[in-house]
Amino acid sequence: MATLEEARAALERIATRLTDVNPDELAKHVVERTVSCHVPDLNLVFITRIHAGGLDSFEVAESPNGAQVRLTVNSDDLVALADDELGVGKAWATGRLKVEASLGDLLRLRKIL
């Protein structure tokens, strides 16, 4: 099980990847949404906001607080996703990553992940 610091660092690495996406492409596929990442084995929830400029900093929260896009992933899988040892598609297909979002948001996220 990863630590809080390792989980936060993994999320920051994932957020940094969005800066590598062409800004015009990002703006075309992203609308402003709140995003939560629940890490159940650490009993933590991180909250951020995604927008055309990327992701804001992740903050620890008590609950997803009505986030429009809700991710659930255990800490080790989160680190593996951040380190490209686990693909998003495989993690989702095997139930290691759960995504709750509207169909429109899922289609937009698919374009940038």
The SSE order reads: HHEEEEEHHEH
The percent of residues in helical segments reads 40-55%
Largest sheet: number of strands, sense, barrel closure: 6 strands, mixed
Question: Which structural category do the helix and sheet elements fall into?
Answer: alpha+beta
What is the number of helices? 5
Mean pLDDT: 88
DSSP E strands, number = 6
Low-confidence stretches: none
Nearest-angstrom radius of gyration?
A: 13 Å
Shape: globular
Termini separation comes to 25 Å
Estimate the strand proportion.
25-35%
Description:
InterPro entries: SCP2_sterol-bd_dom (IPR003033), SCP2_sterol-bd_dom_sf (IPR036527). This is SCP2 sterol-binding domain-containing protein. Residues 17-112 form the SCP2 domain. The chain is an alpha+beta fold and 113 residues long. It is built from 5 helices and 6 strands, in the order H-H-E-E-E-E-E-H-H-E-H. It has helices at residues 4-18, 23-29, 75-82, 88-93, 103-112; strands at residues 33-39, 44-51, 54-55, 59-61, 69-73, 97-100. Strands 1, 2, 3, 4, 5 and 6 form a 6-stranded mixed sheet that branches. A hairpin with a 2-residue loop joins strand 2 (44-51) and strand 3. Helix 1 runs parallel beside helix 3 (75-82).
